[in-house]
Every structure is written in structure tokens, then in C-alpha cells.
Amino acid sequence: MVDTLKKPEFDELRPGVKAPAKETILTPRFYTTDFDEMATMDISVNEDELRAILEEFRVDYNRHHFVRDEQFQQSWDHIDGETRQLFVEFLERSCTAEFVRFLDCTKN
User: Fold this and answer.
1) What letter would DSSP give residue 43?
2) Fewer Cβ within 10 Å of end Cβ, the chain: N or C?
């Protein structure tokens, strides 16, 4: 009989929030954010671009694209177990895909 792959499990700090990855030689560094290092970065040379990005977030060009009814406004803390894990993984893949698409667009 063929055994299917086991779904990856992860520890959560609280529902929906993954615990930080344990650092090993195989841990991909690009998934780790050094917030202390970021806090000391001089971003003044990019201030105009950062302000433009923040303004785009405020404008929210997609605000009328998505349905945001009462169901959208509810808390999703009641999702647990495998469903929560799959949902978190889906959101991570979606965010990663959007970011990669953004990087591809900036190259052209």
C-alpha cells in the first residue's frame, strides 16, 4: 500500500502565529527576519519610495474588489487542527507568491 506524505506540523505561539524557526545549518535564512538589525538600518535614502508605498497601502486600490460582509469581519479563532494548519500554509504561499510576483515586476 502507498503511504501519502505527512502534512508538516508546526508549533504556534498563539492560534495562527507560528513559533520562530529553530536555527540549523539547513534552515533557510531568507525566512528569518532580524528585527534588531532592521531597527538600526538607515532607510533615509529610500524615504520617498517608502512614503509612496505607504500611501498606496492607505489608498487600498483593491478595497472594492473583495466582498467584505459580516462573515469577513468575524474572528477566525475557532478554526483549529488540520484546517487551521492548511489555512496558515495557504496564506503563507499566497503572500510568498505575491511577493515573488512583485519582485518580477520590479525587474522589468
Assistant:
1) -
2) N
User: Three-state DSSP class for 19?
Assistant: coil
Give one word for 17, left, alpha or beta, with left for phi > 0 and alpha for psi -120 to 50: beta
Averaged pLDDT of the chain: 78
The percentage of the chain sitting over the pLDDT mark of 70, rounded to a whole number, equals 76
- The pLDDT tens digits of the residues spanning 52-79 come to 988 988 888 877 887 778 887 888 788 8
Find all residues with CB under 8 Å of 16, minimum gap 6, and list them.
76, 77, 84, 88
Tell me which DSSP letter residue 38 carries: H
Distance CA 32, CA 29 (A): 5
Handedness of CA 49, 58, 104, 18 (dihedral sign): positive
